[in-house]
Every structure is written in structure tokens, then in C-alpha cells.
Amino acid sequence: MSRTKIKLFAGNRLQQLRKRESLTQAAMAERVGISLSYLNQLERNHRPLPNHLLQTLCERFALTPSWFSDTREAHTIQALRETMADPVFKMAPLPFSKMTEAANQSPELCQAFLTLYRAYSFHQERHFEAALPSSPALEPYESVGNWVQEHGNYFHELDRAAEEFYKTLTVEDRQPDAALTQHLYARHGLHIVQNADMESRGLVWRIDQHTRQIHLPHNQPHESTLFFLAQIIGQLEQSRLITDILRREGPKDHNAQELARVYLGNYFAGALILPYARFLERAEKLRYDIDELRRHFSVSFEQVCHRLSTLQRPGAEGIPFYFLKLDIAGNILKSFSANRFSQARFGGPCPLWNVFRAFATPGQIQVQLSQTTDDAIYLNVARTVGHEGSSYADRPRQIAMVLGCSIADATKTVYAAGLNLEDHTMVVPIGPGCRACLRDQCRHRSLPVSGRMLDTGSHARGVVPYRALPEG
After folding, report:
1. Residue 311: inside a domain, yes or no?
2. CB distance 332 to 325 below 8 Å
3. Do both 118 and 145 map to the same domain?
């Protein structure tokens, strides 16, 4: 099987670029050496953007290829597919081709439609209430997730602030926690104390302004202490920058803003303990080996995975990864994507995903090539994380995470070793969840695809007792 090549439709980006440069279509076409009619076709998404023209545009306008990425459109298409799978639309099914056209031609209208559907779903779930207060169409965590996604999980001002702060520290023997402890005492007069009662109170750190002490849990892992100290520094010293970012471009709902503030605080902490340039250089040298990076920087597996998903600084991009963290029940705890991958918004994730196999082999890395329903192929790296139980009565949370990149970037990683990336025989087809997945022949299907007419068949029975009739 030959490798699937995803066509890049960048009409919206071309129009944005042309308007930004105050160029007419004729002037733009002359600037990049193409005909006016060809540029018109590109802007209308009637033709994909070829690689040689992409390189020309980047050279002429000092841009990176990621600027023309159709990642946002891919996520919008996935959201439309899941939304249109709702039975409320069964009388007016929308073919996939039309969804793709809508996402490319009218992205603002698509977002308005998705927001309206969210509002509809919100009120449907609460229809039994006599009166509803004004409520957001999105839950706060959904608003924050969408906001982070729009920024490609990269916040330049905060990332640079963390990197510049790291340069002021005197870090010896790769022990930044000692440097952070010294800084907190010298700058803020705060002492670190171990408190055995923290865990029972559900706290990971607490600042006692009266005694000028920072209380941390007793006997916690080194990497946790490091991250918590970085969080505290971010709260004490970067609140103004975080507030400026939120005031300028953050979510408008109060609860969403508060969650976004927590996210940006965590982002700063991760950027501080893993400074961008140093981390990217080491990541590329080690071919993105997560365990090697974890040992080199004395951080956790999760901290490395999360940082790898943020390496999208213009002009110094790393591999665009997606990163998800799930519990054993399939609940998504974290979700960030710098590539086309988009997780299911309704229902559980696909059971064929290797992140679920990771629970059967705790602490071991699972590697998988998977193909989503838009024919994109990803290299996925999954592993469980977390701590063991401290007693018989303890119930530690079972968590796994998956880091994934496009097959086009797979050879840059150590995880492609031994894989024949040209042979797709063992590529696992995964979907966005059964509700929106169109793969009729999957024996792992748990329920019919929504919004489609079903045919149970009278003379034959398939691996599932129903199939969806073709669209239209």
C-alpha cells in the first residue's frame, strides 16, 4: 500500500496573507510567479497548495510551512462530523464532502454553527428545569480547550518569559529545584517546609504568608517538587503577564478565564523547567526519546510529553505532536494537538487505540501506527504514568497518555526504529468514537453510527448486526 498524502487546501491562509500584505490577486500572483486564474483557484480551495509553491510563499514572505497548515480546518471537519451524527439531523444528512467544503470556505460560519449546537445540547440536557440562568454554550473547560487549540498550544510571550527567567538562575549538576528554592528565598523571603498533612488535605502546595513558608507534601517525587516550585514562581511573578494575555485574547466567560489562568500558570512552569531552545536541541539530538529526555532533565514522563506538544515557536518548530491523557475508563483528562489529530467530542475514544493497551503493560511503551478516518496516518507512543499505592487502602488513579505525530515526521523519532513506514499492512484503523465513525466493518463497534439510515440485512449477517446505508 502506498503512503497516503494529505492534500493541503490553504485558501483562507492565502487570502489572509494577501490582505495582510495589501496585495491584489494580480499582484500576489506576480509576486510568487503563478497565473491569476491559478491563484484564484487556490484561494477558492478548488486546487490544493503544492509543495513547491508552499516553499516559494515561505521564502517570499518570511513564513514557516506551519503558517499554512490546515490543522484548524481538520479539527473543524471532525467536529462537524460528530455534530451531524446527532439524530436531530437525520432528515437532512450532510455528506462529508460538503462538510469539508464548508470548513474550508466558511470557517467562521462553521464555528457559529458548532457554538449553536453546543448551546442546543446544553439546554436539551437541562430541559426539565423551569428557568435557566444565562449559561455559556460551551462548558468552561471546553472553552479553554478550544482557546488553547487555536493557539497551537504555544504562548510565545509566556514561553520567552520562562526561558529568560531560567537564564538568570545558577543551575548546578542539573538540579534546578535548588536554584528555584534559593530564588524564592532571596526574592520573596519564602522557606520550603515538608508537611505530612498536605496529602490528606488534598493540597500539593500552600503558601503561608504569616510564617513566610511554602508547604509541600512529604516524600513526593523530585520532579513534582520541581514543577510545584515553578508554578509558585509563575503565580508570584508572572500574574501581570498572564492577566494581560487573558484580557487581550482569553475566553470571556469568568469560569473559563479562571481555568485558563491555571492553564497558563502550568504552561509557564513547564516552560521554565524545560526551556525551549535547550529542550528542543536535546530532543532533536536524542530523536525525541522520551525516557532519555526525562532522565537528562530530571523530570517526569508526562512533563516531557506535554512539553513536546508545545514546540511550535515560529522559525524554530519541533515535530507537531498531539498529546492526550486518559484514565482507565476512557475519560480524557488533557488534550492538546499541534497537528491534524482531533479526539472524539462525544462518547469514548476508539478501543483500538494503543493508549488502552498500555493499561495491560504498566510502565512499558506501546508503539502503534494508526490511520484516522480522514486517511491521516500517525505514529503513536503510549504508556501508563502515575504512582503505586502507598497502602492497601490507597486507590491510586490509573492514567495513561499517548503522544502522536504524523507518519511524515516519524523518521525523526527513535520510535520509528524497526518499522517499515512504507508497508501499511499493520496500520490500525482508529475512529473518532463509534457514534461518528463510518467504518461499518469494524468488529469493535459498540453502537451504530448516528444520523444514518441502518440496514440490518435479511439474507446475510455481518461482523456487526447492522450497517449504515451510504450517505445520500
Report:
1. no
2. yes
3. no
